[in-house]
Specification:
- By secondary structure, the protein is of the alpha/beta class.
- The chain has one domain: Aldolase class I (TIM Barrel, Alpha-Beta Barrel), CATH 3.20.20.
- It is built from 12 helices and 10 strands.
- It has an 8-stranded parallel beta barrel with strand order 1-2-3-6-7-8-9-10, surrounded by 7 helices. Strands 4-5 form a two-stranded antiparallel sheet.
- Strand 1 (about 20-25), helix 2 and strand 2 form a beta-alpha-beta unit.
- Helix 7 runs parallel beside helix 8 (about 205-210) and helix 9 (about 225-235) runs parallel beside helix 11 (about 255-270).
- It is globular, with a radius of gyration of 17 Å.
- The termini are far apart.
- The relative contact order is 0.14.
- The mean pLDDT is about 95.
Length: about 280
């Protein structure tokens, strides 16, 4: 089936030369204090990221003006987060939920802000079938709106461990579970899938095969940067088209250098060691 011209045009804004680095700074909707470290001054964060030059910046409606009011023609594309939920806190909530930020017109803010894409969660948490049902309902509503207006839809399938395992919901790297949920996201009409890395990076090709659309790797929590780069290179080798990284960029002392290293990996084929050298050159 041919992709609509408006959808394809927006996809082209994201995937320069076939790849995309999307820097996520939409963490305010998670209501988790630890995510806010490094995002206190959003205007300064956006200035830093625009100067660094990733392909896209992922933001919620309330902060998107900081990017879209800028005059540069070549600024990063906007990816807009249009849902929110409460699975990210240390303590499990009595009621877990996920909802669209605008239930009646779910992508109206993205159209207003000239976003290149919208992103919605698909949570799979242990013993939380109602949360999963809410996500499916959200995606169904958003998919219909995206089709109507030619807006690409990024779905973020998240298979999480039980809260008691490490405190706070953490990623379950089981390849079988990730592949199954990614396949569901594909069946629901995702144009892009933001997927967790498999515990063994060499299994990630299975995620790519299940998706049948471009797959961007989700970054998760902050880790040692050299380790992040090495793992990212392995995932790119398995067919990933790029990354959606947040804390590993904006909580770093030199976000610009991290962006340069990741962009070299995505667009120039740099391996982990080469990306590490690029980072150290600043």
């Amino acid at each position: 089936m041919k992709m609509r011209i408006s959808t394809k045009a927006r996809m082209n804004r994201l995937f320069n030369k076939g790849g995309c680095l999307d820097v996520a700074v939409d963490h305010g909707v998670c209501n988790e204090p630890s995510f806010m470290v490094g995002l206190e001054d959003m205007a300064a964060v956006v200035n830093t990221l625009v100067d660094a030059g990733p392909d896209a910046i992922q933001m919620a409606y309330g902060q998107a003006d900081l990017l879209q009011n800028r005059p540069e023609r070549d600024k990063p594309a906007l990816v807009m987060r249009i849902d929110m939920g409460n699975p990210y806190n240390d303590q499990r909530h009595r009621v877990m939920w996920s909802m669209l930020q605008n239930h009646d017109e779910p992508i109206i803010g993205a159209l207003e802000m000239d976003a290149a894409c919208v992103v919605v969660n698909l949570f799979m948490l242990p013993d939380e079938p109602e949360l999963f049902r809410q996500c499916v309902e959200n995606i169904s509503k958003v998919r219909a709106a995206c089709h109507r207006y030619g807006m690409p839809l990024m779905i973020e399938p998240l298979v999480m461990l039980p809260n008691e395992v490490r405190g706070g919901y953490q990623v379950d790297g089981d390849a079988d579970k990730i592949v199954t949920l990614v396949r569901l996201a594909s069946e629901m009409g995702a144009d892009i899938i933001k997927a967790d890395p498999t515990e063994n990076p060499e299994d990630f090709h299975r995620v790519v095969e299940a998706a049948r659309v471009p797959v961007l790797v989700r970054g998760g929590g902050k880790e040692d940067l050299k380790t992040v780069l090495a793992k990212s290179a392995k995932l790119m080798a398995q067919g990933a088209k790029g990354m959606v990284y947040g804390r590993n960029i904006y909580q770093h002392d030199n976000p610009r250098a991290v962006v340069r290293a990741l962009m070299a990996m995505i667009h120039d084929g740099a391996d982990g060691d080469e990306a590490w050298d690029i980072y150290n050159r600043g």
